[in-house]
Amino acid sequence: MSGIEPDMEDLFQEKKRVRNPLVPLGAFATAGVLTAGLISFRRGNSQLGQVLMRARVVVQGATVALMVGTAYYYGDNPWKK
């Protein structure tokens, strides 16, 4: 019976994930713009704070697009199971 059953290591062997080095940079950029926006709001410069919050949304969207694009490029389609 042991000849028919596959080894446990074969069943649970995972594909090695490829890490994109630009994703952490995007996360740090998002955090930096968010921090600068919150500081400018606190200091009373609401116009600059609003511009920085909009910039944060753009940087965050670019980071998410980079993550999805990297996953799709390396064969891990996030929309298919």
Give the SSE map.
Blueprint: H1 8-11, H2 22-42, H3 46-73
Helix pairs in contact: 2-3
In short:
It comes from Brassica carinata. It contains three helices and no strands.
Describe this structure in words.
This protein has a domain at 48-74. It has three helices and no strands. It has helices spanning 8-11, 22-42, 46-73. The protein is elongated. The two termini are 31 Å apart. The model has no long low-confidence stretch (mean pLDDT 79).
Protein traits:
single chain, 81 residues, mainly alpha, 3 helices, 0% strand, elongated, transmembrane, transmembrane helix, mitochondrion, RCF1, membrane
User: Could you state the order of secondary-structure elements as H and E?
Assistant: HHH
Mean pLDDT: 79
Work out the radius of gyration: 21 Å
Shape call: elongated
In the predicted model, the low-confidence regions spanning at least 5 consecutive residues are none
Proportion of residues in β-strands: under 5%
Largest sheet: none
Number of helices: 3
Q: Can you count the beta strands? A: 0
* Helix content estimate: 55-70%
> For the terminal residues, how far apart are their CA atoms?
31 Å
Structural class: mainly alpha
